[in-house]
Structures are given as structure tokens and as C-alpha cells.
Amino acid sequence: MISIAKKELHQFFSSLTGYISIILFLLVSGLYLFVLKDSNIFDFGYATLDKFFELAPWVFIFLIPALSMRSFSEEFRTGTFEILQTKPLTKWQMVLGKYFAVLAVILVALLPTLLYVLTIHSLSATANIDGGGITGSYIGLIFLAAVFAAICMWCSALTSNAIIAFLVGAFACLIVYFGFNALSKLSVFTGNADYYIEMLGIDFHYRSISRGVIDTRDVVYFFSIIFLFLFVTQKNLTNK
Questions:
Q1: CB 209 within 8 A of CB 136
Q2: How is the chain split into domains, by residue range?
């Protein structure tokens, strides 16, 4: 598993793919927080990163599929998946190795955003910020990235075309993140099953953790979704 993860990380950072993805993420979030009108924290007037944590999931919907689209599709296209099968590796080790490599790149992308915390702390009139809320939001963002990565790994294992894997992955992340919330607002569900339908979506649990309270139900939900998609990815590889 570790050898697979090292190989994937080497591929990410031996070309411009990994660097460009991280730079674009930081550029978009930086412009949104400090430059663009009506969204920057200077116009907002409060020392908070709420705007960043609202934007980050939408950036992740495109960033994470771009990072993981080649995980298995490229192996299928070039025929190296057959070579991998000759190695003393189980399907779970293949899946987890590639999965943790994607997560590592995402964590590297998130690390420079800690400078935003220092920035709003220095800009705060009272030199005091909501540390609990920011910590909870970062934990929620990591869980969200982990779920998106698991979904995109499954999408990459479905096809040998990386572009199709990207498009399907982005659409699947969008549906799982926002689709259930939108579905719950339909008039037919209002007052009946709307709350339970909304609970099926990632957005509900992401917002819950972002309040700064780590609820066991949210943690179980995230781990369950991650395991589900990694499990079906492993089953798909076994069938191939």
C-alpha cells in the first residue's frame, strides 16, 4: 500500500498536475477572500473564515475529481493494471494506496490556508477569533475531501477514460453534496420527510461539524460513506 501511495505522489509532483491543482485552489480561495467585491473579508467586516468554508466545497467538487481521475482509468488505458495484479498486492492495498495519495495532496493544498487564520487573527479588532468554529470547519472540510476522494476513486475505476472519470466524479460529488438538500426542499416532502432526506446529504453533516461540535453521528456518517465507495471500488477491481 505504501509503495502504491509513494508512486502516486511521485506522479503528482513529478509533473505540473499536482502543483497547478494546488496553486489554482489557493488562487481561487485567496481572490474570493481578499479581492473580489462582496465576498472579501474586508467588506464583510468580521474576522471569520466562513466565506472560505462556504467556497471550499464547491472548489473541491472540481479539484478532487481532477486529482483522482487518472488513479485507475490511466492504469486501464495503458495496460499497467495487469502489471499491478502480478505484484504481491491485494485489491484493498491498491485502492487504499491511491486513496491516501490523493488525500495527502489535498492536505498539502489545505496547509497554506492556515495563513488565512493568522491573517484574520491579526485583522481582528480584539485579537480574538472563533477558534472552535474554525477548527470544526477544518475537520469538516477534511472529512468532506475524504468523501469526495472516495467517490472519485470509484468513478475512476469505472472507465479507462480519464475525462469521463472527471466528469462523472464531479457530477457524483455535486449530487451527494447538494442534491439531497435540494430534494428535501421540494413541496411534496416539506413537513414530512424533508429533514431525513436532508440528513442523507454531505452538506447537512458538513455544516453540523462546522459549528465546532463534533457529533458522533456525523463522524459515523462520513466514515460510512467513505467505506461504502472504497468497498465498491475494490469490488469493481475484483470483477475486472
A1: yes
A2: 2-239
Residue among 77, 75, 83, 34 at smallest CA distance from 55:
34
9: left (phi over 0), alpha (psi -120 to 50) or beta: alpha
Q: CA nearest 147: which of 54, 62, 227, 29?
A: 227
Comparing CA positions, the residue from 53, 65, 174, 192 lying closest to residue 120 is 53
Cell numbers describing residue 25: 485552489
pTM: 0.88
Neighbours of 13 (CB within 10 A): 14
| Angle, helices 216-239/91-110, rounded to nearest 10 degrees | 130
pLDDT at 101 over 70: yes
Q: Which uninterrupted H or E stretch holds 180?
A: helix 180-184
Residue type, 184: S
CA distances (Å), 213 to each of 133, 136, 139, 223, in order? Answer: 8, 7, 10, 17
pLDDT at 9: 79
Q: Which span out of 4-13, 145-154, 192-201 was modeled with the highest average pLDDT? A: 145-154
Do the beta carbons of residue 173 and residue 197 sit within 8 Å? Answer: no
